[in-house]
Amino acid sequence: MTLGKSDKALFVVAQIGQLKQAQELVRSLGLADVEVAILYTRKNRQMPIMVQAAVDPTIIGATHKIEIHPASNDLSAMAADFAEKAYSSLLDMVKPQRLFVCSFERHYAILCLEAKKRGIPISLFEEGTAILKNVVPGYKSFTAPTLKTSARTIYNRVWKKQPIAKYVFEPVAAALYQILILPNLLAKTAWEIYKSPQIQERILERKHMHFLAGWNDFESVYSTNPEIIASLFPQSEMREHRPRYENHEETTVAQALIEEYAIDGNTAIFASQRFDMKPEIQIPLVLGILLHVAQSTGFRIVIKLHPRESEMVVQVYRNTIGRLGLQHDIILMEGAHVPAEYLAVNSECPAVIGISSSTLMYAPKSKPSLRSISIGRVLLADLAQAGIEDAGTRQIRDHVSILSVIPYIEQFEPGRPQRAALKQAAE
């Protein structure tokens, strides 16, 4: 089915980054009748407001806020049932002639199934590097549930704060009280057992198989690197879509920043990222690696902060650069909200640097002369050497592993003596 420019298209997004990618595709395809559904959970009611504020009314005709279950990415039949009702209502209300989604797993698979029931062609569009994870050998979007994890979850939710779990017989009053409420605790335990991944997986196998397996029946897939993910969607038409970074307002802001920070043919741009790690641990290590990049390449490096970076993080960057005397090689760009790609594409910048930022994937597609350099592996090596293994390191490891399938992204692998001296000075 050929997509007509006047056909009503519905894009489903949950974050500002996804909305920006959707709007880029709308402009590229020249679609004239477009509506956007913004997903949210009751635990984060601010996000849809922020996303809606970023909607471009010149290309988006209407927006719809759609609540999804907080457990939409967990093994939960309740979440799948909730998604089925929410997405059925959405499709029946909007009546799109084409559906665009940026994911094909869990609750999005329910949406795709409902669209297929209604004969609505479905397209997948890329929101960032996450789509590539499925071609990384051994990568798993969702870790397999274990009985140990389920038992710990049930214990923490029901029994952990109850005195009976810690004190069996004393004090007597507490023990007697626990006996009185034991039926209630057992009922709660039974409910948590029912919600455990092991039980939910069996229910989902019967009711919502696509929630477990994902969806790959797309008419078309829009991707920056379609050749990399083509094997995931053998029945789909693969289409290359490159972000164009032609927004006049952002280009104007970028040009002013390029002049202010003297971004020239010897200045690389580092796109910072947020991970679940204390900034006082991550930032000195990152700056040490960036100093080594500067010394190895001769580049001066400008740090483009993540747009939602906290003032505390900015302060850590500022203080560490000053304390270690890095100002000659590393410059902190503050108060800049334009995407790093606009800075790289509109300047003579020779390279973009990151840990696993999508800038590494997108910027070289618009400016092929750009080098794309990841410091992810060496950062992980430094964290391992420091004995740091936590949720943050696992998050970084997952993100960095995705980059392995993109051939034009380099992994910076320096020698270690200079960085070791810098880390010692930082301590």
Question: Descriptors for this entry?
Answer:
about 425 residues; alpha/beta; 7-stranded parallel beta sheet; 6-stranded parallel beta sheet; 17 helices; about 45% helix; globular; disordered C terminus
How would you describe the overall organization of this protein?
The chain is α/β, with parallel strands linked by helices. It has 17 helices and 13 strands. The protein has helices spanning 16-29, 46-53, 77-94, 107-117, 147-159, 172-195, 197-207, 209-213, 226-229, 248-260, 279-297, 311-323, 340-345, 359-366, 376-385, 391-403, 417-426; strands at residues 8-13, 33-40, 62-67, 98-101, 122-125, 220-223, 237-240, 267-271, 300-304, 330-333, 351-354, 371-374, 409-411. The strands form two sheets. It has a seven-stranded parallel sheet with strand order 3-2-1-4-5-6-7, sandwiched between helices. Strands 10-9-8-11-12-13 form a six-stranded parallel sheet. Strand 8 (267-271), helix 11 (279-297) and strand 9 (300-304) form a beta-alpha-beta unit. Helix 15 packs antiparallel against helix 16 (391-403). Mean pLDDT is 87; it is low at 416-427.
How many helices? 17
How would you characterize the largest beta sheet? 7 strands, parallel
Distance between the termini: 62 Å
Shape: globular
Low-confidence stretches: 416-427
Q: Please list the strands of the largest sheet in the order they lie side by side.
A: 3-2-1-4-5-6-7
Task: Report mean pLDDT, rounded to a whole number.
Answer: 87
- Helical amount among residues, as a percent range? 40-55%
Structural class: alpha/beta
According to DSSP, the number of beta strands is 13
CA-based gyration radius: 25 Å
Instruction: Report the β-strand fraction as a percent range.
Output: 5-15%
Order of helices and strands: EHEHEHEHEHHHHEHEHEHEHEHEHEHHEH
